[in-house]
Structures
1.
Amino acid sequence: MSGFKVNRRDFLRVLGWGGASTALVGCDMPTTVTLEEGKEDVVAYFMPEEYVIPGVGVWYASTCTQCAAGCGIHGRVREGRALKLEGNPESVINRGKTCMMGQAGVQAHYNPDRLTQPLMREGGALKPASWEVALKKIAEKTASANGDRVAWLSGAVSGHQAVLINDVLNTFGSKQHFVHETIHASVWQAVARDMLGDAQPVLRMDKAKSILSFGADFLGTWQSPVHFATQYAKFRSGKRGVLIQVEPKMSLTGGSADAWVAVRPGTEGILALGIAQNLVKRGWAKGEVPAKLKEVLAKYELGMVANATGVAGDRIQRITAALKDHAPSLVLAGAPVEGGENGYDAVSAVMLLNILLGNIGQTIEPAAQFAEARMQARSGGTRGALEFSKLAAAKKLDVAFISHANPVYHAPGFMKMKDAMANVGFKVVMTQFPDETAMQADVVLPLYSAIEDWGTHVAAYNGGVATLSFQQPLMEPLYKDTRGFGDVALSLLKQRKPKEYAAFNDYYAYLKASVSNMPAAVAKGDKNKDAAWNALLQKGVLETKATVGKFKVNTATVAAVADVSADVQFPYRLLPSARLGLWDGRHANSPWLQESPDQISKVVWGSWVEMHPVTAAKLGVKSGDYVRVTSAQGSLEAQAYVFNGIHPEAIAVPLGQGHQEYGRYAKGLGVNPYAILNPVIEKKTGEVAAYATRVSVTKLDKSARLVHMGSSDTQMGRKLVSTIPATVYRRTEGEA
Amino acid sequence: MSFKNILENWSAFRKDAEAGGHHKYDHRWGMAINLDVCTGCNACSTACYAENNLAVVGKDRFEKGQAMHWMRIERYWDDADRQFPERGASFLPMMCQQCGAATCEPVCPVAATYHTPDGLNAQVYNRCIGSRYCSNNCPFRVRYFNFYSYYETWAEPLNQQLNPDISVRDKGVMEKCTFCVQRIRASNDKAKMENRAIADGEVQTACAQACPTGAIVFGDTMDPNSAVNKLWAKHEVKRGDYLSKKPKVNAEKRGYRIFEELNVDPSVMYLERVREEI
């Protein structure tokens, strides 16, 4: 600190805090940290480092970054190697549990295709360079850039990483931070904001006695899957809640449903209004129903709704009765609903059910957000990439920084992201892997893996408890020419504001100083800063104060939901379904996750096209036959998987494959349905309507065995998975 | 040896299976898997790959049925003949059932697969000659054979993730779920050093630890206070029940063991899936 005059408020702002007045104590920040001092020396194996006990594994707390949910983890380290990740029981997100992607975190770290040194474009090709040269090049190229001609495109980020991105952009006077996530809940959040006054309400599945989910794959890909799975376990225990899943294609959550209801793709919102109408008509709606709302609902009579959705009228009545009988309930909407061209209206119709059923305040509670706004999660959907691609294509960007994201692969084909990026003056890509976006960069900065890096994380969905989750290195970096994301961001800041950031030799020093100066408004401080810091790292999570909102219920935005139009040339709707495992494709380079079968189809190592037996019969297709799926934007070819867990008017092609780069395990495997999406935008949110593309299917003259797990699709009369009716369960265990 | 002595020693081993049969057990590790909360998510299976150095075989070998997933999730369609699977899918986590009367054990020509005093079907890798008789004899299809030297396919530095607590198997060796025997042994040793009994919950298999819904409960079925034993008791599943040749005493209890009729005395109890009629 000495030698520079930085005023206290600025100092706190630099550290990510809004500037609450706390007394500053002397900062004796360590200049560097290594887990293994003297690594360069050759030391005999039988003379281990002081902290290494041969044969004994030690556990360190950290945070999983395999998706944006922010689960706390424990990593097992033996003889300096990280071996296994488990859930951190202290984390309110995952309560000691992990999903398959969390388990595969070690493979993202030890992946053989990681970038090991910076790359710079020279004469059209990317060539190895040193960090000094690469950073100097960035300093040169960005020196005269300013304002909104500088942009940062990232995946979901939070904590101090979000602060640093924001601060780098501030040095340019730019506000252009775009967040791009293929798997998102942006429409749900927009509707929650407009109808409840809270974009991220807490969903208490543990309190609910029934869940009606319109395609929300909360056990697989929706918001915080492990958190919801722990909640689901409570939901199913004791009196046992009832799960009704309404969707055009069976998701992982649909596989666990008491009642799985196939709905005509794109008409989920109509069904929701039909149920709402039925609730009002039978006098089961809680509270006063506004006249305007009654007017909207009037035309959603059973006959009309059954006709539009393909769900029989008596079924709709039984679903309505189930919600009333098993109160309190919880009604959710996920990707197939959010991704429709009528997404906002459809999700509004779903949210209306929560209001009519009296769930607000019962199973839906106001969010408790992390007290420091600048560290809150920046989640986003596909709108970020869309805006970014438009700016880039219009040559409105001189400099683009890209981190935590691979837009060239993830953006739908119609955005022509690769071509758009060619119009950006200078592109810096920070990544761990040689992905599609890195290949378009001018400078590629190779990052530490999550297991080597420092960080702090604030979950976008926190289940009602605000926490700051710490990420710490579990081992020394594998490659000496890689750097941490925070360190890189600090280097960028030092280029432009040397004085403010001079006190921090590295991201570790920055984080420690920030946490030591945490304002009382965020968390209660501890006088012994070092001990407090160590205790935090040991525990991994810090419960903080929260800003708790208050609901303001509003049904004025509920409107009629437009029906989907038929199309003779393209008779089917394309469902680019997501799956826990490969996620949006970011985990396609993990051999474990490639070899782990899709939970529903059980297919491994590739892409497939799901269709209903009725559709297959019409096309003369059986499982294993190659088919071509064509939209107005293009076509793709893959093997068919025929099963009855999909609506006959839908064709599903899972996300995750079709990489053109991204290392040996991902490259050239399967197809990416996002490549053939039609440019349909949901008008009220600006998100890509990913489930609104219409396609045709033709059979190709080629067939092969579809590589999948298991030889028998049925139990063939054996008692393998036995099922009992809930009436029996209630008699014997229900009250337990 | 007198005739009396033979009779006395003989009777010491003439216990019914519930009391351990002809084995003298210290522990009997077992599981309870609640199929009503199992979501089929694959967390257990991937955790098993991470813990047990399982080989990734790739697409071509997967097609030939050579995948090494010790813990796999079977998915069955019970409504395959209906228009839609209206009661969802049937997921079944399947791994070695560590049978008390295992069919794999007596057929091994070299005694590479044998019964341990804590109730596991152990596989001695360096004794195994790869006859694959055990695999042929397993009704659960949970034994996996190394057709290749998969360690050669572990690209640097993926091999640095390998768990040093257990071996990497070579070509020609049979392998299967061990109930994470390395974790059991470590906890056993620790308890012994601290001169105490091993506590319930002290050992968790990798699959049980990862399971997001807590569907898998692992523990010592001989410990009357263990969570797993309490579940077995609550659902009226007993070891050695097959000797009675009676159908389940209480049809309303959810507990059952797969292929009970084969009399192999599995150590894994499943709890039935529940479905509400809507």
2.
Amino acid sequence: MSALTPTTSAVGSSNEFARWRTIDIIVVAILAVAFGVVFWAWNAYVWVWLKPFGEPWEYIITGVWVMPAVVAPLIVRKPGAALFAEMVAAIVSVLLGSQWGLDTLLSGFVQGAGAELVFGFVMYRSFGPIVAFIAGAGAGIGEALHDIPVYFPTYGANLQFGIAALEIASGAVIAGIGGWLLVRSLRRTGALQAFPSGR
Amino acid sequence: MSLLPAPIAAVRPDFLTRVTPVARLVAGIAWLVAAIATLDPIVPIRLTIAAIVALVLWSGLPLRRIPRRLAPLGFAILSLTAFSILLSGTNADRSLIAIAEFGPIRLTAPAVSAGLAVGLRVVVIGLTTLLVFGPSDPTRMADSLVQQWRLPDRFAYGTLAALRVAPFMADDWIAIAAARRLRGLQAKSPAARIRDTRDRLLVMLVASIRRAERLALAMDARGFDSGIRRTHFRALRMTWRDWLTIAVGLAVAVASLVLPH
């Protein structure tokens, strides 16, 4: 080993694949902050106008809320990226004053965990559109598991199933496929060259 | 000028500003759990009263700014309450007496009471959030999570560094719009506006990734990833105030659940 080898390689050599470099942490955190800002704008300007128009419009687009959980792992390809990104995005929207407040931390956790399990299932080795689609659906399942007992406990069972189905489909299409397309666009701009996904 | 709202932060030291953030977080989560554990509206009503008392007496927050900040919350509460009552499964139960009927719509007492409980949950969540995050800044929250909950420090401080970038993103957003206008890219139809927003978001994300790369490089140059054990500039220790906050917070949560009507 030359004297120029960074000290970090000694720390990370046991599991270079799972180790997060500073750039991985910062890029995921900053992307999550960007999404957190988008969520805040979404909550404050879009959601409040959509909700009074009634069901089921709101649930068709809930996939927007789980995009970080798909986009971050597709970019950095590290274990924990889905959970970390979704939690940071949740914290940012809380700090900006999301009406869901503290509860965003709970929903962010289950949404991130839903996507994380899917990427974990393929051992963080496959990041194509199909895995992204299923991960988006996984995040949607997490979202439904949180939203139904917390916000829709009084609804009839048919409606609850309907909401769950829409949230899962929305997660799969908007966050899954939409997230995959977004990462493809980012790669084409050359912005991802520091990551395995950009090469 | 920034597009982002200024956070509601403490304007004077008070009891809760001297309490470590994780203690407030534990108490806040206990209230959140209590509020969502039941469909009896008395529980969120009690917690709302407790939260208002704590906000007024101990939070040090600028009370006058709170109502405006909570305006979207008001909207959320109204629509959520209305839909929770209207779409309640118990309305279809013919064995229950309807308290109101308009044509095919019929409302039962349990539906109304449970709907109110769901709406009030959001009130409790909003007020509790102010009590947890308002009295101190994100830096103290990160310090507290790293030192007292042993969260991985690189992730906590990396997030803190990223949070600092949020105002620049809002500036980027405006600059991108100006640049597009200068190049004659103007969206008129609603569909074109959606496409325009999407394109602006992509440019903003690219700018954010570039910024993240520069920031990571600067942090590494200062030994952020040196692997040397981190020491702390602001050492936090649990004091009697922290334990008292946790104890009272948990006691209020339990009491609001179990006290008879």
3.
Amino acid sequence: MTPSGLAARVRSALVDAGKAALVAFGLFILMVGLRTDVAPAGELFLRTRWAEVGMLCALVFGLRLATALWVRPRLSEGNTQRSAALLSQAGLMFGPALLAVALILPFVPGIGRYELDLGILVLTYIMLGWGLNIVVGLAGLLDLGYVAFYAVGAYSYALLAQFFGLSFWICLPLAGILAAFWGVLLGFPVLRLRGDYLAIVTLAFGEIIRIVLLNWVELTGGPNGISGIPRPTFFGLPFSMGGGPGSFAHFFGIEPSPSHRVIFLYYLILGLALLTNWVAVRIRRQPIGRAWEALREDEVACRALGIDITNTKLTAFALGAMFAGFAGAFFATRQAFISPESFTFIESAIILAIVVLGGLGSQVGIAVAAIVMIGGFELFRDLDEYRMLVFGGAMVAIMVLRPRGLVGSRAPSVVLGGRKRIDASLVGEGRG
Amino acid sequence: MAYALQQLINGISLGMIYGLIAVGYTMVYGIIGMINFAHGDIFMVGAFISLIAILMLISGGMMEGPAAILLVLVISMAFTALYGWTVERVAYRPLRGSFRLAPLISAIGMSIVLQNFVQVSQGARVKPLEPQITGGVELMREGNFVVQLSYMQILIIVSTLAVLAIFTWLVTQTALGRAMRACEQDRKMAALLGINTDRTISLAFVIGAALASVAGTLYLLRYGIADFFMGFIVGVKAFTAAVLGGIGSLPGAVLGGLLIGLIETFWSAYFSVQYKDVAAFGILVLALVFLPTGLLGRQEVEKV
């Protein structure tokens, strides 16, 4: 590069960064520079923080300058295609490796209670992601209220255990069935809707469920939630700390330890998640799975070919909801306490983000996205209130940099001749 | 009767606020076909900026009369418009032409960013603002019940109508409005005919944010509270209004807003306050099942 070319680039980068800093000044001068505080007497007053505004503007200037001078030239050098191909190659081995790690995780030295709890959380989101993937990734129905079915599952178990004394193992299928029933119930009125209309109705449905849970105090305890939900037993053997006769530790003749239950819960959710994955992968090759994918690609063509749109959509909703119901029952038994606060829209948004960031339709991609998002969220625990800010920013950044998700290609369900992977940009978008 | 009349007044003034926000949703949806999920949070930012402006004026001893209100509105519109512009530039423009779910996820991320930015910069506590505009006109008296049209409600109705009149003039009479309508019909063709579509889309966001900030200011003055989470539920209801009125239709957005406001107010007045949101969403579901394109929406023609 000639010196004059370099000088021109630096100059334009400086101007660009200056403009960005000016915009940042406009954004932050009031919102950061003047903070509204509530005085002890109850009235509001303003506190000035000009130094922070200056720092933020300098930060924006520096970041913008850095991206213009260093990051962008590298991005445009154009090896993104090759790296994407490499990534999907590695993905074929990555899935089994990930599964192996997940299977032995509780016995890896250095993995304590905290790490296992985090593992349980991540696996719950992986399971929810795989469940939602059936609805969004396969059938192409954009669902923004998925957390409602999660809530139905959780409350089903909590209420059945509380009022009828049923055990977890009886409630688990019941919670799934009830959630699936609600899935069909929601599915019926929205059969005719497409795309964003469907999205907003599912969102509204999720909110309706949450508001009802919040206000039906006699049944659900309202905002106080339900506590004292029975913990799961090892096929009838409780994990009691006393280690008395009939308990898990006594039966197997081992020292009672609180980690038994955590390890059991870990394998329970791992099993449930793998079940979700297995069903989703198998059903993709069944006629109904192919009908879902056909529906996602072109609803009109489906109708012309005699596919029953009603059944196809309703089974997608029901199956997706059923897995959310399982996950909900698991959540209730793990927490032993549930309240409507756990089932807000943000949960639906996180699950949908996991599915989209993973690359719609890719099972391994969703698992990686859940690990990155939920694990990363835990990693930034020390940031306290900045954590959600970073989380939202990361969502925007990942979308801008990799709009097709982490795994941008997938294997077609039906192929003529040899197997090959196709780029995700060739796959239908799911207009619902 | 008098009670119903009072509810009618309350419902209309609330519905106008929803209508102002709904216009922003419907305008962006009409042009680039995406749900701008962060729009409700832009409304919240508008409320906060006007809160700061009001507090500045109070500490300067100038918070009196219509001129002060007008000044607050102008400050809030200008700064909130900058937020609208930035959101589009950072989160949506790089994704133009990408697949349909990408901007939606990006918008949800932006909504989280805005909420938490305000939580960090302004604190998580609810900010109570003392009523700035009090009093009203007595319309009718029935026994002990007085039907009152408060000055605040007059302000809401007058300023909403004024803002919407300016907006309608902008869309129907100016070159910018023509460009916006052209982009809405066919973005590629508009670009071929020499319209700077990126600039037009930016301006749609700026105008939408300015309208949302007016709604934010009015909401703050009417209800006297602001907090970082207020944008979500109001945003969802405004989007509901836009869908109900027929998304893409500007008069439809205002009509939908009025309907949602009226339904919500009458439901709270005669049935239960707790379930008022359920009523609004329930109506949305019913409306979409029977009128899938909304009240004033265009029938979508599907080309095969």
4.
Amino acid sequence: MTNNTKTVREPLLHIVKRDNITLGKKIAIYAIAIVASLLLGAIICSLVSTRGDVIKFFSSLFEGCFGTTRLFWLFLQEFAILLAVSMALIVSFKMKFWNLGGNGQILMGGLAAIACSYYLGGKVDDTLLIVIEVFASILAGAIWAVIPAICKALWNTNESLFTLMLNYIAAGLVNLFIAIWVKGGSGILNPLANGKLPELGNKYLLIILFGILITTIITIYLKYSKHGYELSVVGDSQNTAKYIGINVKKVIIRTLILSGAICGLVGLLLTSGTSNSISADTAANRGFTAIMTTWLANCNPLFAIATCGLVVFVTKGMQKVRPNFGMLDDTISNLVIGIVYFFIIACAFFIQYKIVFNPQVTAKLNKIKAFFANIFKKKKPLNENEKEGE
Amino acid sequence: MLAVLVSAIRFMPFFLFGCTGEIITEKSGHLNLGIPGIICAGGAGGSLGVTLYMKALNGATPNYVLLILIAVVSAFIVASLMGAIYAFLTVSLKCNQNITGLALTTFSTGLTQFIMKNFVEIGLISTASTLFKYSLPFASSLGWFGEIFLSHGILVYLAIAIAIVTAVILKNTKVGLRLRAVGENPAAADAVGIKVDQYKYTAILLGSGIAGLAGCFFILDYIQGGYDSYYIMESLGWLSIALVIFTLWKPNLAIFGSILFGALYILPNTNIVAAITAQTAIKKAIELIPYVVTILVLLGISITGSKKAQPPASLGVNYFREER
Amino acid sequence: MNNSVALELKNITKTFGKVVANNNVNLTLKKGEILSILGENGSGKTTLMNMISGIYYPDEGQIFIDGKEVVISSPEDAFKYKIGMIHQHFKLVDVFTAAENIVLGINEKFNLKKVNSRVEEIASKYGFEIDAKKYIYNMAVSEKQTVEIIKVLYRGADILILDEPTAVLTPQETKKLFDVLRKMREDGKSIIIITHKLNEVMEISDRVAILRKGEYVDTVETSNTNEKQLTEMMVGKKIDLKIERTETDFDKPLLELRNLNIKGDDGSKKIEDVSFYIRGGEILGVAGIAGCGQKELCEAIAGLRKIESGAICHKGESIVGLPAKQIIEKGISMSFIPEDRLGMGLAPNFSITDNMMLKTYNNNKGIFVDRKTARKNAEELIKKLEIVTPSTETPVRRLSGGNVQKVLVGREIESSPNVIVTAYPVRGLDINSSYAIYNILNDQKANGTGILFIGEDLDVMLALCDKIMVLCHGKNMGIVHAKKTNKEELGLMMTGSLDLSEIKNKEYGKAKDSNLTEEEWQQEHLKNENMGDNDND
């Protein structure tokens, strides 16, 4: 059938699972991916625009985040908000409950707060109003998260699509209430007079402190508390959870109340804490962005600080890249962030698997390596080869 | 009532393209949450193709067949390219499907806006899109029959044709059998020599391309241009994914599901609603209905726990042959 | 001379990460012979076969077919060289029919009539029974295996590889399969059969190749060897094959189950009118083919599954309807090792420490968990059971199968239970680890614990258990003394051909010295039936 004089054809490469990977290698893979993705973004931007180059791209990124005191405060504020939303999602993702409804829960929290201001503003004392707002936003966010949780617990309803739909319903409800409140159909709600949250020092600090507080609480909650332990068991093996007598339904519902409540509070901060108004775009897709940061952080609160930091860095930085590169609209930001996501997602592959080349290719690669090793032959080039051969 | 049905059918291709595309993808065992983004990208691709064609014509009258062909093919190609990113990450690099899909949606909507704002000329699109609405001239003379079945643009019929062909291929052919085997049990398919990765790539690229036609339809046929339609397309794109569950992974059922969802979508803007109320608030409330109905469908399926309503067994799980 | 060799492997090496699954393995398969590959779990038998069938790709080494070197980089290549593998975990699409599965992937027109007649032709040639139109999910295990075998024969395979084909079969079904294999040999096919059961090796094969820890040991003629020699080659050192049966004085019945009816997830009856009891200091074995209700029985005892009717009493107190937590507190421990080993009782991504506190995390006061004590317990367990692990903080998913099971069984015993329900505790373990688990169970038995042992290997059960209950389609076929029965009798009971409970009387499986009187039992039954009516969760 086959010609037996031919040399044997082997596949060029094949993939094998890694047993374990050192932390150093892991970090190196991520670092390479992040730099490579930004470089790709830089190249695209430089090609599209005549006014910038790769170096300017990176300097603009830093300028956008740390260029002025105000920009730096804004960076921190955005960082804190995203971190808080990520914490809300971490508790639910850790339980393998795919809460994709952060946007909706934020909007409902905000809507509840603004509704309190609208209907009660001027009728009750402003301090009391704020207290009511806080409770209302927590309640609204929690309800928006607990509805799919109850359905999941009782009937195993697909929660990812459920929560996604609730996002659009929440946005629709915001539009609906604005239509009721604003006569004339402009669809824009002017800032309300009452019920605005007080400022701490400056207008950013309250949100930043909130982000730090939530991150601390959730980190401790997950790592040391019994509740955190229970939800981790549910996430890791539901059979085991049932077997040791954990009430899985209760844990799902309890955890999603927590998740929704945090999102609700974020909604409060984004409305009453800033402009004291609301629109369907108030969440600015943070619920969605947090899905990415949470997943990329592998549901670890401390890693989430890194992923949120990176995403906010790119987002805020891109806001400076645009004017510097003479681009009018913000569309390029999503493009670059999308590229960054893809690269970090792809890291999972290189951490879990490794590529093994066939002997011929390996021999060639080793030759190349040896060649470079000779050039830099100060420190034990042989060791290098051994490591790779392992 | 007739008017509602006709308008529903007029909008149906959006859901049907998206739903059929996602069904093909899911049959290979891949849940592509990037479909809303891919739909947008398809819209941008179609618009780009049409803009280039119209520019090349330089004012001359466009050829109907050529115009449609260019729009459909360019939408299909751009959407398939988006699908290729997803396929590379999930099939070759075995990355998490959900998260890759969501990232793709972010990327694609960015790309869509970028293309629409920088390379597409809305004026040209509007001129061209009158051709998309072109329907048989004698349709209106045939009463209700003509209105329901014959009065639509070409994409309505293309969507139905694709859905029916897909249904037949999945059910009755060797290729369909193999694709279903890949989605149900890739290890079994692999063990009998089916090239699993090749089938997955093909299904994802084909499915994405078909879904991209939804965007092409939306921009070129339905709203006839418009920069900021990506938000609407994205939100409706999720409904297409929900529709897959609703129609039990059957493209032929998806035709009727799409008409139903089309009716729900156009309801706020129909005469029926206008006759009852002129208040924007109530219109806004009616706009929520498709999403609420989707949730009710999800609930219904989960509560009855129907055995028939089961997704392909390996949906969402990537395949690695040397898994131990 | 090469004409008589069908397949030859030279210096095959395959590694998974740091684990060397096969190291320099050589193997020859002659035409028209049955070759057994013998080795313990983890000795690399399946990995080696997967390389012949194109699932894995070897790191080093050569494969020769009919004397020519070949590259098999995909299952397609394997088919090209007429190699067919019947995997241990069947590679069948559940929602397809037998015929659809058989023709899947073949380049010919899908013509059901033609397929059916060819399938029948193959079946009658070798003596199979098959219904080509039946869906896989409606099939019993042995039927699925038949489909798998016909699938490779349909493709014209000349070399057949069977991976542990008898693991899921009853002794009678095994005999049938062996008859088929012999017919194939007469037909000129070369067959490799992977197994770790010595008696089967002696019965079916012409030659035996032995692997140990990934290394090739030797190939011997079956007629020139014996079980003892094979064991030594397989395990490497002389070991005593006898499982000890600790003799104890039996106490009063600890756990009594009467007229139990349990439904499965799909609503079908999984346990039907089963009664039995376990005394302290007794090991009661449960034998039966896969899916005969073992899992549902375990779950019902542990409080994870509702019973339809009947009664379960622990030391004379009903435990029906109690939450799982309270049943654990009463000292009833249940450990179920599913096929993936990690499904129930352990959280795979948790560290050993975190797994140690699964059942006790709620015992201390306050809102925080006490990880310190758990870590201390983990350290002690690692020392006591010689668990091989880098640290107490290693996720159990990373441990080898034997060590995972030691963690699970060890933790269960740590809570000093008085009843242990354990299903497949030695699943997938090598001989030494298995003996470690048997010893743990025997120690517990000596302490007066009642043990329900659900097993797969009848030889082990005959040696370890005091009594054996046989289930068939959820019915109790009889409870026999391990010393007074044999494999053939158990096999007949497993398939339902022999029903001892019918021969005896109505009170079968009910203790004469029960903790409850007949009247009290009646009340329990009544109570549980009422409960079933009211509560429909």
